[in-house]
Specification:
By secondary structure, the protein is α/β, with parallel strands linked by helices. It has one domain: TIM Barrel. The chain is 44% helix and 15% strand. The chain has an eight-stranded parallel β-barrel with strand order 1-2-3-4-5-6-7-8, surrounded by four helices. Strand 6, helix 7 and strand 7 form a beta-alpha-beta unit. Helix 3 runs parallel beside helix 4. The chain is globular. Bound molecules: ligand LLZGTKA7.
Length: 241
C-alpha cells in the first residue's frame, strides 16, 4: 500500500511565514509534501509554487475546483501545466465535471511534458458531520454512505482517489480498487484542539485505518517547533515518499 510522507498544509498569510516554514521543513528528510491551499495561492500565486518546487518539495495544489465542466476543464488545464503532483476537485460537481477535470489536467501536463498530477475528489469535507449533512445540505444518505457514493463516482470517472476522513477509509476500500487513494485531513494528535474539524483522528489511527496519506496544517504550522511536531506525526503515521 502507498503511504505518503505527511502532507503539510501551508495555510499562512505572509511570505515571511511561508519562507520560515519552508526553511524549517526543508531540513526534514524525506521532505514533506507541501499543500498550497486557497489562502496561500490567492496571496502568492504561481511564483510560490515555483519557489516550493525549486526547493525540492512535491506540491499538492488544493484548490478544490467546483464549477461547470467547461470552466473546470480550463482551470485544470492550467493546473496541469504547473508541475504540481496532486490536486483536487469536489465530487459534488458530478461525473461530467470530474471527467472534464481529468481531461484538462492531462492536456495541461502533456503540454509541458510532465506527469499528470494525481486528481483527488473531495467527498464530504472533514469539517462536516451528520447534522450539517442532513439539516443544511438536506442529504438523505448517512455521512459514510455519502462519502462512499462519492468515492465510487470518482473511481468511475477514473480519478486517482479521494479526500475523506480516515474514519471512512474502510468503507471506501470495500468498493474501490486497491490502487485508489484515500488521503485524509482532519488529523489531530491526542490532546490537540479540533478547531473547525469534526471527523478527526490521530496520526496513529489514520495509519491503522489504512490512510494513504495524511494532511496536517495547524498542529504543525502553529507549533512553536514545527520540525519536532512534523517528526512526531511522521513517526506515528510511518509514511514514505
Ligand atoms: O475535507 C477536507 C479537505 C481539505 N482539508 C484541508 O486540509 C487542511 C487541514 O488543516 P488543519 O489545520 O490540519 O485542520 C486545510 O488546508 C484544509 O483546507 C480539510 O481539512 N478537510
Amino acid at each position: 500500500m502507498i503511504r505518503m510522507a505527511p502532507i503539510v498544509a501551508l495555510d499562512v498569510a505572509t511570505l515571511e511565514q511561508v519562507n520560515q516554514l519552508l526553511e524549517q521543513l526543508g531540513k526534514i528528510k524525506p521532505q514533506p509534501i507541501i499543500k498550497i491551499g486557497m489562502e496561500a495561492f490567492y496571496h502568492f500565486g504561481q511564483p510560490l509554487i515555483q519557489q516550493i518546487r525549486e526547493n525540492g518539495f512535491d506540491v499538492f495544489l488544493d484548490l478544490k475546483l467546483h464549477d461547470i465542466p467547461n470552466t473546470v476543464a480550463r482551470a485544470a488545464r492550467v493546473i496541469g501545466s504547473l508541475g504540481v503532483q496532486i490536486t483536487t476537485v469536489h465530487a459534488a460537481g458530478g461525473a461530467e465535471m470530474l471527467t472534464a477535470a481529468r481531461a484538462g489536467l492531462i492536456e495541461g501536463a502533456t503540454k509541458i511534458g510532465a506527469p499528470t498530477p494525481k486528481l483527488l475528489a473531495i467527498t464530504q469535507l472533514t469539517s462536516n458531520n451528520e447534522q450539517i449533512l442532513h439539516e443544511q445540505q438536506h442529504v438523505a444518505l448517512s455521512l459514510p454512505e455519502s462519502v462512499q457514493a462519492y468515492a465510487t463516482l470518482a473511481e468511475d470517472c477514473r480519478l486517482d482517489g479521494v479526500i475523506c476522513s480516515a474514519q471512512e477509509v474502510a468503507i471506501i476500500r470495500a468498493v474501490t480498487q486497491k490502487r485508489f487513494l484515500c488521503v485524509t485531513p482532519g488529523i489531530r494528535p491526542a490532546g490537540f484542539e479540533t478547531d473547525d474539524q469534526k471527523r478527526v483522528v490521530t496520526p496513529e489511527q489514520a495509519f491503522q485505518l489504512g490512510s494513504n496519506g495524511i494532511v496536517v496544517g495547524r498542529p504543525i504550522t502553529q507549533s512553536k517547533d514545527p520540525i519536532a511536531a512534523y517528526q512526531s506525526i511522521a513517526q506515528a503515521f510511518k509514511g514514505e515518499n
